[in-house]
């Protein structure tokens, strides 16, 4: 069942990255004296859909990658353009309309903008409602897409094994 596989993988990744998020937002912020205005509870509530959408997005991308090593090259290659497309390091008003809407495909756009507003401006979940709801929508869409792609992969594997066992 692809749903069980996707949820099982998600739980492992989610727990791992949730621990890392807590570490980053508590210890690292204090160790480097980074400014932190936002509420910790708000940030953690925002991190949940961000992590889930990123995990399911990565599962969708993994269906199109043949070798594991290629993922590293893919993510390193697209990380800088995604940073600019998010509007955090480049003025959002200077981004052409097409690229602005194109950036909505990626969880990083909503995640970075929401994080900056919560952490640097003290925004609440109500203030970042657009980003928050967009991340939940992405979570649902990427979950469904990941289940569909995993189902296709399972069918291909079953077909390959049935042809091998019949020979």
Could you explain the architecture of this structure?
- The protein has 167 residues and is mainly α.
- Helices cover 78% and strands 0% of the residues.
- The chain is built from six helices and no strands.
- Helix 5 runs antiparallel to helix 6.
- The longest helix has 38 residues.
- The radius of gyration is 18 Å and the shape is elongated.
- The mean pLDDT is 90.
The secondary-structure element order is HHHHHH
Largest sheet: none
Note the total helix count. 6
Secondary structure tally: strands? 0
What is the SS-derived class? mainly alpha
What would the principal axes of the Cα set say about the shape?
elongated
- The stretches of 5 or more residues where confidence is low (pLDDT under 50) are none
Global Rg:
18 Å
The residue fraction in helices comes out at over 70%
Mean pLDDT across the residues is 90
Give the amount of beta strand, in percent.
under 5%
Distinctive features:
mainly alpha; 167 residues; single chain; 0% strand
How do the helices and strands line up, and which of them pair or pack?
Layout: H1 2-31, H2 40-62, H3 69-86, H4 97-102, H5 107-121, H6 129-166
Sum this structure up briefly.
The chain is an all-alpha fold. It contains six helices and no strands.
């Amino acid at each position: 069942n692809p749903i069980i596989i996707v949820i099982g993988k998600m739980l492992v990744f989610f727990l791992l990255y949730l621990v890392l998020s807590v570490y980053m937002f508590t210890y690292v912020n204090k160790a480097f004296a980074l400014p932190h205005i936002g509420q910790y509870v708000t940030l953690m509530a925002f991190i949940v859909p961000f992590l889930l959408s990123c995990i399911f997005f990565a599962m969708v991308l993994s269906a199109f990658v043949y070798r594991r090593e290629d993922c590293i090259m893919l993510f390193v290659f697209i990380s800088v353009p995604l940073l600019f497309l998010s509007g955090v390091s480049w003025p959002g008003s200077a981004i052409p309309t097409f690229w602005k809407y194109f950036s909505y495909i990626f969880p990083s756009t909503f995640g970075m903008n929401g994080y900056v507003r919560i952490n640097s401006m003290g925004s609440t979940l109500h203030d970042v409602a657009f980003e928050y709801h967009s991340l939940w929508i992405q979570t649902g869409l990427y979950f469904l897409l990941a289940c569909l792609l995993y189902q296709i992969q399972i069918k291909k594997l079953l077909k390959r094994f049935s042809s091998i066992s019949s020979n």
